[in-house]
Amino acid sequence: MRKVFLWIAGILYCCGIAAQGQTTTDEQKYLNAMHKYITSDKLFGYVQQLSDSTLKGRLAGSEGMAQAVKIVQGYYAQWNLLPAGSNGSYIQEYPHPSVEIEEGSVEILFPLQGNKGKEALWLHKTYPWADGWFAGNNSGTGDITADIVYAGFGVTAPELGYDDYKGIDVKGKIVLIEGETPNKSQKPDSIALWYKHTLHQTKMANAAEHGAIGLLYYWVPGPNALYNPDFVYCHVTLPVVEDIFLGSGKTYKETVANIYKTLKPASFNTGKRAHIKMVSSYHPETTGKNILGVIKGSDPNLADEYVVISAHLDHLGMIPYHIAGSNDNNASSAALLGVAEALSKSEIKPKRSVLFLSLDGEEAGLTGSTYYTLHPLIPKEKIKAIINLEQVGTGEGLGAGFAKQSPQLEQPLLEANKKYVHRNLRTRSNPYLTRPRTDGAVFAQAGYPVADLTSVGGGFYHHPKDNVDSINPEMLQSSANWIYWITLLIANE
Ligand SMILES: [Zn+2]
């Protein structure tokens, strides 16, 4: 017993010496800053602040987004980040016209039996917002009632021998279509051939060219279509699509499965009508604003090299009601802020500089990252890595796609998790073959070394349930710790 006691006392004594006698290691200093400033409370607080309904969903170019920019910029200034935008400011401003949705409603009209075609004898069914419909972000203003024609993917591609509009008449009618194309091949040349037909603006222009006056779009809402003041559209959900197919002798699921299988259109007049009302206003003069702040590197030989942490701050705006976008992408903005505060207040600074890049216009077609790649404020060859954050606040696991041309980024991603975070981590090398869907893909295609970080599990996408209740603060803290250490590993390498 006495022996054991001495042995334990000996260990305690030795540990005591080690803790008191040795100077704090760099690692310990970084850990101190992490524990002090990257806390789930603080991070969740940022998410709440940016998710507030007074910011009206942070549409690029809107007043609500201007408020969000003010908040982020205010933190940069408070923590003494160096302004790295244009003309000595934190901001890189660029032209970004916007459309604000003020009002909307959708109802589907079902013919009452025996009285087909007579206006007074239709059964009107209104659908609740979000469960049934969302306003088209870039819709024109209009109040229309017309027959609904199902037009598959809304694609006219004579060069591919495929036309959803062949044999149907949509003049003065409303078409029901969905996103993407019937092509499921992942081969690069096949993707390239179908590429332009995946774009919302191609589908909408095609519907208008065929004489349709409006569109029911079975696709998640988002402001990345082109504005046409004469064209009215909204998004509908699966229950509405299934209702429109009711009584036609076909089901939606079988119909679309068949198009995929045969690559043959299956368009038809549904015999239902839709009443769509959208009220919007166009603002050609508005601008997008990227926010850039730097923590200067401590090694004079390496300080002109950068690790970039990027995250988009914008979301969908009011369509026409509030969607907070707490995970998409306020969780990432929160993680970015957490890392910025910890590094700015850490006793020691990494060798290379760190650029915090809050992006605008991601939802509106990746406009902020695209503008940055065309008008870079730091020479491209000085950027060692861009760590792009997308929805890092839900679920229990971590995910990362790193650009195929930058395999060197996998190691720090794995090491940071293994040493400091201990979450389930899925990585994959990303060829970014399809059209860019994240800012990370935009940077990768412009030749930057990029990793796209996300969290895995839980969460809602472009839906009012993407609110603060969906955030897992502990997961958000893990993500931020992970980002912090990846940044340090690359910046100190
Ligand atoms: Zn996003």
What this model shows, in words?
It is a single chain. The protein has 493 residues and is an alpha/beta fold. It has 2 domains: 27-96 and 286-491, Zn peptidases (Aminopeptidase); 104-279, 3-Layer(bba) Sandwich (Glucose Oxidase, domain 1). Strands 1, 2, 13, 14, 15, 16, 17, 18 and 19 form a 9-stranded mixed beta sheet that branches. Residues 1-21 have low confidence and may be disordered. The protein has 13 helices and 19 strands. The protein is elongated, with a radius of gyration of 26 Å. The longest helix has 20 residues, at 2-21. It binds zinc ion (ZN). Zinc ion binds next to helix 9.
Distance between the termini: 49 Å
Count of alpha/pi helices: 13
Share in helix = 25-40%
CATH class group of the largest domain: Alpha Beta
- The number of distinct β-strands equals 19
Concise account of the structure shown:
Helix content is 34%, strand content 25%.
Could you list some keywords that capture this structure?
Aminopeptidase, single chain, Glucose Oxidase, domain 1, disordered N terminus, 493 residues, binds zinc ion, alpha/beta, eight-stranded mixed β-sheet, nine-stranded mixed β-sheet, 34% helix
List the helices and strands and how they pair.
Blueprint: H1 2-21, H2 26-37, H3 40-51, H4 63-78, E1 82-83, E2 91-95, E3 98-111, E4 122-126, E5 133-135, E6 142-150, E7 156-157, E8 162-163, E9 174-178, H5 188-198, H6 200-209, E10 214-218, E11 232-236, H7 238-245, H8 252-262, E12 268-283, E13 287-295, E14 306-312, H9 326-345, E15 353-359, H10 367-374, E16 383-389, E17 397-403, H11 410-421, E18 425-430, H12 439-445, E19 450-456, H13 473-492
Parallel strand pairs: 6-9, 9-10, 10-11, 14-15, 14-16, 16-19, 17-18
Antiparallel strand pairs: 1-13, 2-13, 3-4, 3-12, 5-11, 6-12, 7-8, 13-15, 17-19
Bound molecules: zinc ion.
